[in-house]
Design brief:
The complex is a heterodimer of chains A (about 425) and B (about 550). By secondary structure, chain A is of the alpha/beta class. Chain A has 13 helices and 16 strands. In chain A, β12 and β13 form a beta hairpin. The longest helix of chain A has 19 residues. Chain B has 14 helices and 27 strands. In chain B, β1 and β2 form a beta hairpin. Classes of the chains: A alpha/beta (about 425), B alpha/beta (about 550).
Chain lengths: ~425, ~550
């Protein structure tokens, strides 16, 4: 356990006057007891922990990475600007070296929001980490960034946004999609053709406890991070893996979360899900804050914590060992797999169906990516959403190469509105966002 | 008639107010070894020729508690802590005699782990063996369930001179601060009791029947007899008296800054809509962060007599003070000397002041006037930069609702009140630099005593109603009572306001002075299982805010000697 103090920034925004609905898990009460615990522990009085007020994200920050239909303000409320703004503030404080690391304890969450946004899904409207990541690149120059999503649910939104980005390593460790929303995040979801291997999914069986998570961390995630050498590590820190969470089936503990955070040593942590608001969140968050600040967290345990009753089975342990070995092999062989995948092709296509459970929207996407060795590749997406939205998007990747950019401009130019309500052109490097 | 007395570090001031006009003022030198002597000396001066029956009230602002803590003249305190999970116990220790026991109350105020009375008794045995006479009992979240603390108290009842309980110190959350507050409270309990008894005995001898109040750090008063259990309440009353004094001399409803420019330090306070701001959680004293309700002040090490040095092309002002200005026989040049040299004031020996500034000017190779102006400007700028930082901190304080992020009040001062020796000369410059109007109130030299005399009784209560648990707690009053499931927000509000009223009256407030304000009012839907409302979690905090007693008029006319 680390013993050296770090300067930690805390951006705490519990949005006490906002909810999806009065009885929804994403309601005003969600972070109430967490606030009580953080205040009662006196964490904000500690010399090396500083609290910051969240800034506000702008439509520009959102349009840098999302295609919102018809526009950003139609799909969000003020609370989303604050939540994304809080993540951005956390990033700023770290990038300006005002602190060594920062934790954005904010709501509402974001990791189920995909590149194209027709509404809310999985309690998320906009992807607060993705917005933060692209804000960092926009303001401080292009960075190699690793996002480690430890929320119990597969971070399908973040995966979608960075699918084609070889400079963003997206690792999601979650309860197996065969047993939980959103039903994805399997090992073979490995990244787009120009970024093959830079999306890593680690599905774990139900009832995995501290040992399982930490095994995957030590034997897969940390070695991969070591090889990727990111400039920044971001932890999408969902807390619904907890043994007491009402909507999931894992057995992680406050000690486990603190240990994970300590070993991962993220530069920025951002809250995602976590709905055991009385029995888990207060203790997990105190543990994470202390771990990030380099303070002894060994006394942070839930009052009812009994490691014996939540220990995973031997079978689970063996399963995880095998899984971890297999994924690591996959990672090692990514370059040759890519070579096979793209041989003789100049574009690759995929069709997808996406369901928005919070707003009951069904979307169908036809996506094409240009095969490129210089950059992430130009992306075009035709998106058809019930009840009656049809749009087309042209997306120039970050650090886009001249050839991909040229193709993008030409496609945007020649695509006629016809069947589409809106046609979008997004080129984040040059701050361009056009709608016709 | 009202008497206000402020015991300061150097002088003790008293005023006698007759229907809110200054009838008399008096000043004696403070004897730091014997505050009672200073008090009685100044009282006799102010009181001679007056009829004791005419006195309506007496208010004391004393440094007895502050001095005891700051000078470490405190009693040994045995601490019993029930902290449960969280920070490591080493980080919670205070003093030499801290014991952490089992027992934990959670954020809902539910007792998750009970205490072991055997463990508590053994700790009391240890305390007794060590001749410790004062004990502090503090539990985490005790404000939401005082029961754990009071049970510990019952177990050791009668074995010690005094026990201080965490939940009675404040309704605010913060376990480490609660521990520090309880510890300090117990450590000065004896000293303060002796002081109160001496004062009451003196008052009796003088045949004064009027109630005696003490001034607290939050600019409010409490009857001295009611203050005995909470001696830490009377700390830092000096700066509070000064701020209440400004309020009394210039009644206003605006956002404002007040500067008290002393010899060694300048104290800064901020008013929002005419009311002085309070520390969000509590004041810091003797290096301890506490939950003691106090006015928000910043003290910076720049004052009229601060030492001015010149080294490597840089002028530095303070933080040390070597003595008075050279113009008054002091050893080193000061900002006061620079003001004298510039002709902004004609106090002291101008020749000496000029010589002192000339010496620095020569070393810096600057003309005299320029050097004097630079020193003066730097003094003003340093003070103002601290002011700006303070306002910025206040305006950037984190908030937790969407509404407050977008609509929250921002402090935008329109006037700066300046008191203290250099106030007159500095006012025009400060006005220009801040771009707002300045005001140097009259009678500033006794503003402290006037402020004390006219301060109203203040206090706060914190209510938590949990209808799922079926219980309401009001920490400061030690109330823990059952409530029906249908307990509404209005019920909670009525109970909170009713309790505040009773508490304030008990502390000596007058009926007409119960200007109550709700400072926190939140109701949360408690949902358990899939989408069913299990109850309401209602949090209300109410206070009587700092201000002046009813019937006060702004005009204060001339003094009769």
């Amino acid at each position: 356990m680390s013993n050296s103090r770090k300067r930690t920034g805390l951006i705490f925004f519990p949005a006490f006057d906002w909810a999806i609905s009065p009885t929804h898990p994403e309601r005003e009460e969600r972070l109430l007891y967490t606030q009580d615990q953080v205040f009662e522990e006196g964490l904000l009085d500690l010399d090396n922990i500083t609290e910051f007020k969240p800034g506000l994200a702008t439509a520009e920050d959102i349009d840098r990475i999302h295609i919102c239909v018809p526009d950003a303000h139609s799909v969000i409320t003020q609370s989303h600007l604050i939540s994304a703004g809080g993540a951005i503030t956390a990033a700023e404080k770290v990038m300006q070296k005002e602190v060594d690391n920062a934790f954005a304890l904010v709501r509402p969450p974001g990791h189920h929001a995909m590149r194209i946004v027709h509404g809310a899904r999985g309690f998320c409207n906009i992807n607060i980490e993705a917005i933060m990541v692209e804000y960092i690149r926009h303001t401080y120059g292009h960075k190699r960034i690793a996002i480690v999503d430890t929320d119990c649910h597969h971070g399908d939104g973040s995966q979608d946004i960075f699918w084609h980005d070889p400079d963003t390593l997206f690792i999601s460790i979650h309860q197996d999609g065969k047993t939980l929303y959103p039903g994805s995040g399997f090992t073979d979801e490995f990244g787009g053709p120009n970024a093959l291997g830079y999306t890593i999914n680690v599905p774990l069986p139900p009832n995995t406890s501290d040992e399982g998570f930490l095994f995957a961390l030590d034997n897969l995630i940390l070695p991969i991070l070591d090889e990727f050498k990111p400039d920044l590590i971001i932890n999408s820190a969902g807390q619904d893996n907890h043994y007491s969470d009402p909507i999931t089936n894992m057995s992680f503990s406050a000690q486990g979360y603190a240990l994970l955070n300590d070993r991962l040593s993220p530069d920025i942590a951002v809250l995602e899900g976590g709905y055991s608001i009385e029995s888990a969140l207060p203790y997990v968050n105190v543990g994470i804050i202390l771990a990030m600040a380099g303070i002894d967290y060994s006394h942070v345990t839930e009052p009812d914590y009994n490691p014996e009753t939540i220990r995973q089975s031997q079978q689970t342990s063996r399963y995880i060992e095998q899984k971890v070995a297999a994924i690591y092999d996959l990672w090692k062989g990514r370059a040759s797999r890519r070579a096979d995948l793209v041989k003789g092709r100049d574009h690759l296509h995929r069709s997808r169906d996406i369901f928005y459970d919070t707003d009951m929207i069904s979307e169908h996407q036809e996506e094409t990516v240009r095969i490129c060795d210089e950059c992430g590749g130009l992306i075009t997406i035709a998106s058809d959403a019930s009840p009656g939205s049809r749009i087309f998007a042209v997306i120039v990747p970050g650090r886009g190469c001249p050839a991909c950019r040229k193709e993008g401009e030409e496609i945007f130019e020649r695509t006629v509105k016809g069947p589409y309500q809106y046609i979008y052109f997004q080129d984040r490097d040059r701050d361009i966002f056009l709608v016709k | 008639m009202i008497i206000g007395i402020d015991v300061g570090g150097t002088h003790t001031d008293a005023v006698l107010l007759d229907t809110l006009r200054i009838k008399k003022k008096a000043k004696v030198v403070t004897n730091p070894e014997n505050l009672i002597e200073s008090l009685t000396a100044v009282t006799e001066k102010i009181f001679s020729g007056e009829d004791p029956g005419d006195i309506e009230r007496i208010v004391l602002s004393t440094t007895i508690s502050t001095n005891a803590i700051v000078q470490g003249k405190t009693d040994r305190v045995g601490m019993i802590l029930a902290g449960g999970p969280g920070l490591p116990p080493e980080m919670l220790r205070i003093g030499e005699d801290t014991h952490v026991i089992s027992g934990y109350v959670n954020h809902r105020g539910i007792r998750v782990t009970g205490t072991d009375s055997g463990e508590v008794t053994r700790i009391a045995d240890i305390f007794e063996r060590e001749n410790i006479g004062h004990v502090g009992v503090v539990g985490k979240f005790s404000t939401r369930n005082p029961g754990l603390e009071t049970e510990i108290g019952d177990t050791i009842n009668g074995r010690f001179r005094h026990i201080s309980f965490g939940h009675l110190m404040s309704g605010n959350l913060n376990f480490p601060r609660r521990i520090a507050t309880t510890y300090l409270n117990a450590s000065i309990w004896d000293t303060y009791s002796v002081f109160v008894n001496t004062v009451m005995e003196y008052v009796g001898r003088m045949r004064i029947t009027a109630p005696v109040y003490i001034l607290k750090a939050d600019g409010g008063t409490s009857m001295i007899s009611q203050s005995v259990g909470y001696p830490v309440g009377s700390i830092l009353s000096g700066p509070a008296a000064s701020i209440m004094g400004i309020l009394s001399l210039k009644d206003s409803r605006e956002d404002a800054i007040s500067l008290d420019i002393g010899g060694t330090t300048t104290d800064i306070a901020i008013f929002a809509d005419g009311v002085p701001l309070l520390e969000p959680l509590g004041v810091t004293i003797g290096g301890h962060k506490t939950l003691i309700r106090g006015l928000l002040t910043r003290s910076i090490g720049v004052g009229g007599d601060s030492r001015v040095t010149y080294e490597d092309g840089q002028i530095t002002i303070g933080p040390e003070r070597d003595g008075p200005a050279v113009a008054f026989g002091g050893p080193s040049p000061t900002p006061t000397d620079s003001m004298i040299a510039l002709g902004l004031t004609d106090i002291g020996d101008r020749g000496k002041a000029i010589k002192a500034i000339q010496e620095i000017a020569d070393r810096a190779n600057h003309p005299l006037d320029e050097m004097a102006q630079e020193i003066f400007d730097l003094t003003c700028r340093t003070i103002l930069s601290a002011v700006r930082e303070m306002i910025s901190e206040i305006n950037n304080k984190p908030v937790y609702t969407v509404h407050e992020i977008f609509e929250g009040k921002r402090i935008s001062p329109t006037v700066v009140y300046i008191v203290g020796g250099p106030a007159g000369p500095m006012a025009p410059y400060i006005e220009k630099m801040l771009g707002i109007s300045s005001c140097v109130p009259e009678h500033a030299e006794v503003a402290n005593a006037i402020g004390a005399a006219l301060a109203r009784t203040t206090t706060e209560v914190t209510l938590l109603a949990d209808t799922e648990k079926g219980e309401v707690t009001i920490a400061e009053e030690g109330i823990q009572a059952p409530i029906p499931r249908g307990f509404t927000h209005q019920d909670a509000m009525d109970m909170c306001e009713g309790t505040l009223r009773k508490r304030a009256l008990r502390m000596g407030a007058q009926e007409g002075d119960l200007d109550m304000e709700i400072i926190e009012d939140q109701t949360f839907n408690m949902v358990r299982g899939m989408g069913s409302t299990a109850g309401k979690n209602i949090r209300i905090k109410a206070q009587v805010k700092p201000g002046l007693i009813a019937g006060f008029r702004q005009e204060v006319s001339d003094v009769k000697q």
